[in-house]
Write a structure and sequence with these properties.
Elements (H helix, E strand, L loop, with lengths): L2 E6 L6 E6 L2 E4 L1 H4 L5 H6 L1 H12 L7 E2 L4 E3 L8 E5 L3 H13 L8 H17 L4 E4 L5 E2 L5 E3 L6 E2 L2 E7 L15 E8 L2 E2 L4 E2 L2 E4 L1 H5 L5 E2 L5 E2 L10 E6 L2 E7 L7 H11 L7 E3 L20 E6 L4 E8 L2 E3 L8 E3 L1
Parallel strand pairs: 6-20, 8-16, 9-22
Antiparallel strand pairs: 1-2, 1-5, 2-3, 3-4, 6-7, 10-13, 11-12, 11-20, 12-17, 14-15, 18-19, 18-21, 21-22, 23-24
Helix pairs in contact: 4-5
């Protein structure tokens, strides 16, 4: 088993690396000094065979993984898509929480839970995943700080299984979709809940909520699809300051990788190196008494076989000086 990522050593330039156990092989020695992971995924079928050969050979020139800083694994990154409201328990939590927080809501908790369960059932029967595009500039590395940008203070976590596309895809079927997946990684979709909706404007503001720099810690590397027998057996675990917040199996997913990739390919062209997130399981801040992220928090994420993320939350270095809350900003 091996992974592929982008790494940085002190005094060096970022380089594509082959991860075997706890060691990293600099792939520039095999693919040339200008090599990067974006180029590897661009010709994934051919390069995967070469990576197998390297992984099975002598790794005496390898570098300890712990001595390197993992950068976002695919560089340069192509397109970036996210599936939302895609886990049964998570969606049930969201629907229940939104209704319970409505000051005009008078129904019992049992009644609201029944309504939430019916909503999830209808969502699964609709046959259409909910997918939106996100900003590659929001992606950061698996050990980078998470900047808790303002405006907004209700910063939440959503650790998600992600896939990297390995072949051009357009109008592929569900049965064919896995043939277009190169491998798996993970990404933590940081979301600022109190800026998701604007007053008197009935639209979701995903740019403000999810699109800010560092809001998608990703990696530390990509594990080729062949090493994951069944992604539905994987487990998603996230801790804040050592306390488990998310701990759910991927088998709770509503629309799987196959459906998400197939659906997205009916809307747009998918290219090698594109990143597709599959949604967050249950256990977000709202489930934990609105325990939002704060400066100084340490977030640790892990998905079976995909490595570990560890990110420190830091305060927004700017203050907002405009009355409308998103205009002129100055260093604190």
């Amino acid at each position: 088993m091996f992974g592929v990522g982008t790494f940085l050593a002190d005094g060096d330039e970022p380089f594509p690396g082959l991860v075997v156990a706890d060691a990293v092989v600099d792939l520039r020695g095999y693919f040339g000094p200008e090599a990067n992971t974006g180029a590897l995924f661009a010709d994934w079928d051919a390069n995967l065979e070469r990576l197998r050969e390297i992984a099975s050979g002598d790794l005496v020139a390898s570098i300890p993984l712990e001595s390197l800083r993992p950068l976002p694994p695919v560089q340069p990154l192509g397109q970036f898509f996210c599936a939302g409201a895609n886990y049964r328990k998570h969606l049930t939590e969201m629907v229940f929480s939104m209704a319970r927080n409505d000051p005009q809501e008078t129904r019992s908790d049992d009644g609201l839970r029944a309504e939430a369960a019916e909503f999830v059932k209808q969502r699964a029967e609709s046959g259409m995943p909910f997918v939106f595009s996100a900003q590659p500039s929001a992606i950061s590395g698996a050990q980078d700080d998470i900047v808790l940008w303002g405006p907004g203070t209700q910063h939440d976590w959503e650790l998600e299984l992600a896939v990297v596309i390995g072949r051009p895809a357009r109008h592929v079927s569900v049965d064919e979709a896995m043939d277009y997946v190169a491998g798996y990684t993970m990404s933590n979709d940081i979301s600022t809940r109190d800026v998701m909706y604007r007053t008197n404007f009935p639209m979701t503001d995903f740019l403000m909520t999810k699109g800010r720099p560092t809001f998608f810690p990703t990696g530390p590397y990509v594990v080729p699809k062949e090493f994951v027998e069944d992604y539905r057996t994987m487990r998603v675990t996230l801790k804040v300051n050592g306390e488990v917040m998310q701990d759910e199996g991927v088998d709770d997913i509503i629309y799987g990788v196959e459906e998400i990739v197939a659906y997205t390919s009916t809307v747009t062209d998918l290219y090698p190196g594109d990143l597709v997130l599959t949604g967050s399981p249950a256990g977000n801040a709202g489930h934990h008494g609105n325990r939002w992220l704060r400066s100084g928090d340490v977030v640790e994420g892990e998905i079976t076989g995909l490595g570990v993320q560890r990110n420190l939350c830091v305060a927004d270095p700017f203050t907002v000086t405009a009355d409308h809350g998103y205009g002129h900003r100055e260093k604190t």
